[in-house]
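Retro notes, structure queue

What went well: the backlog is down to a handful. What didn't: a couple of records were mislabeled last round, so from now on we paste the full input next to the output in the thread. Example, using Transglutaminase family protein from Sinorhizobium numidicum:
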Amino acid sequence: MFIRFGYEIGIDCPQPTPMMTYLSIVPERRGDIVGERGPVVSPIVPMEEITDPHGNTCLRMVLPEGETKLSYDAVIKDEGRLDASDPLAEAVPVEKLPPAWLPYLSASRYCETDRLSALAWKLFGDVPAGWQRVEAICDYVHDRLVFSYGYAQIMRTALEAHEDRLGVSRDYAHLAIAFCRCMNMPARYVNGYMADIGVPESPAPMDFNAWFEVFVGDRWYTFDAKNNARRAGRIPVARGRDAADIPLIQTFGKHQLTAFTVWTCVEADSRLSRSHRSADISLLTPWFSETWSRHVQQRDRDRH
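Corresponding output:
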């Protein structure tokens, strides 16, 4: 199947401001893209593509004073399979873990393993280590928290989410990650796109989603404490220890967000048309089409 995804974001800065974005999909999925426009920045500024320590692709630029708009629109080919599952996967002893995965056992900005360890062992210590233990953690976090976009709080940590008993997808992920690490299972945070595939369509505005991955058996597996179900069509954007490692937008100075629209939907074919087929997803604005044309013209001039 084909999935269309993208964004339009507006940012206003009082002065020229350096910025990094974690909006590009993970490198291993780039080969599945069958059509794309962007990323486009208006007004046009130089962009540099870099790779962070976690292997994510980032764009670095300096925004001018005033409003800047960023846009991207793409279609990706996806097999439509549910998240991989292996109920027999066992936890890997710490001493046998690949060295690269050891940082995903430690506390991080939003995942206070030191403050949650005693509770984690009390709740999950009697559950067989490995897949069953991760599922038990997902069940607990799913039942513990109440979801609502109105509960979004950028500074909320895993412990605070547990005590408040509410949150959004990033809070579900942070709490589950913290519990997994307390139980000596490497866990990492993932941000990305996820359409309503095989589930009832949500009336809420589309947004980026957060889930997490745990290293059990001999590989990383996807888990989702918020939905607490295997899903199809996930498109990872970036991975890190928690949300602090992979902010969608990171400015090094003051800024104000003036627009934020995200879309993810199943397409009938691979053609990147000018409009969306889903009524719940915002139409591409005329600004995007006009800016894309100017971007292509400028790119062609630069090449020559």
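Agreed that this is the format going forward. Reviewer comment attached to the example: The chain has five helices and 14 strands.
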